[in-house]
């Protein structure tokens, strides 16, 4: 028998998670069928309350293997995935053309090498007027603190190049510019210069990993993009204005119930294609 999160988590944590879930779902048409991307062991939606379809880029056996060695999954139930979003295959085909009133992606987009193309595929599966909830790490409170923000040009460029795996440049940027945060770092005041930061990877290691990824087409899981609430809204409103996405940006939302300081939320509301 699987032990559920509520049986092992302290009450304050249970209440915080429920508050977070309630806020996110409260801005979605939750009475309609929904889609959640990569819920892993921490889904936003609740199958006992919502008609939700779960998708990930790996199958259930692999998900269970990963969860078994992840300390964060202890005491949590890992939900069953309904379909695998096969790399290189459109999401709509992977889910047999299903349509949804909303979609959710919690801490997923920052790992995607082609974020605009990825969002376009999700929006293709959402009805006009539906929303995509996107939760992202805020660079000012994470290991991405020293990294440059992702730009409009980069997002559009990747949508043209269509990388299916993190590129050598994305790998280099993450490994060579992030720092090691064991949870004890206080972001209340500016951090010391990067040269004084505790590194997880040296420059030499970063170069070696980037070369390996390029030479072998290996998938290395990194944060491909870096955002603040303001930068995400600015980039995607420009993308909207350029006619590259049929969705309005709603938000950002920060410091809502149950949400950690290092997280922010935006919604993309699908609009009809321009005539």
Task: Sum up the structure in keywords.
single chain, 33% helix, globular, Rossmann fold, 9 helices, disordered N terminus, 275 residues, alpha/beta, 7-stranded mixed β-sheet
Lay out the secondary structure.
Elements: H1 5-8, H2 11-26, E1 34-37, E2 52-56, H3 60-68, E3 83-84, H4 91-94, E4 100-106, H5 115-124, E5 126-137, H6 152-161, H7 168-177, H8 203-216, H9 229-241, E6 247-254, E7 263-270
Parallel strand pairs: 1-2, 1-4, 2-3, 4-5
Antiparallel strand pairs: 5-7, 6-7
Helix pairs in contact: 7-8
Distance between the termini: 54 Å
Give the SSE string.
HHEEHEHEHEHHHHEE
Query: How would you characterize the largest beta sheet?
Result: 7 strands, mixed
Mean pLDDT: 92
Overall spatial form:
globular
CATH topology: Rossmann fold
Instruction: State the name of the first-level CATH class.
Output: Alpha Beta
Strand order of the largest sheet: 3-2-1-4-5-7-6
**Structural class from helices and strands?**
alpha/beta
How many independent structural domains? 1
Please state the CA-atom Rg, rounded to the nearest Å.
Answer: 19 Å
**Beta strand %:** 15-25%
Instruction: Report helical residue fraction.
Output: 25-40%
